[in-house]
Here is the input.
Amino acid sequence: MTAPEPDAAAPAEVAHPRAIRSFVTRAGRTTTGQARALAELGPRYVLQHDPNTPDLVARLEDSTPASGQKYARTVLEIGFGMGQATAHIAALQPDTLFIGCEVHEPGVGALLKLIGEQGLSNIRILQHDAVEVLRHTVAPGTLDGVHVFFPDPWHKKRHHKRRLIQPPLVRLLAERLAPGGILHLATDWQPYAEQMLAVLSAEPLLANSAAGYAERPAYRPETKFERRGLRLGHGVWDLLFRRVAAP
Here is the structure.
């Protein structure tokens, strides 16, 4: 994923001009299993991005999970990669509807494959830029949570402006959260963790749920890369900020 970059031609009052994207294009090959999942499960679980649908969450919450109860919460995930964490958390929280934004087809196919293998019904996928989804189809105050796990850290200093977590996007995320909703970020790159903490702490619509970085919540699984990094002595930083009433 990549961070917002301003478009000089955009009006000044537009926080996220059309050209901004929440991802960076990367190569990837779709496997046979992923392609089969796309064909068989895509029509049911992959949503079409429609900028004329201003309240996607309300429409999806009308869906009924297998339990017969309405979904109690709605959580948006930006950039779910290959979907392992998404599927894990969805299995733990069947009363929560998870909307995952991921533009890369192999990742979408991989998550669909996990949905089929695990019999999950509480996940929907948007194969579209998350910034546009947030701006055009998610109404303010309608999300109970947002997850952004291990976004691209853009290690080189000259690339820091490409990082996803910047003040305009954080404000947009905060506005889409309902009061009490949680923005959960995680990174394994300390300089990026420090930037995340500074940006989130400066947003008046958010309050830190911890004194600095938070303990990894039990629902977030460790990835294989995270486990390898921890064995090598690398750190992982979680941040959990709560949406507060408007100042």
About this structure: Helices lie at 32-45, 56-61, 84-92, 105-118, 130-137, 167-176, 190-201, 224-231. The two ends are 31 Å apart (CA to CA).
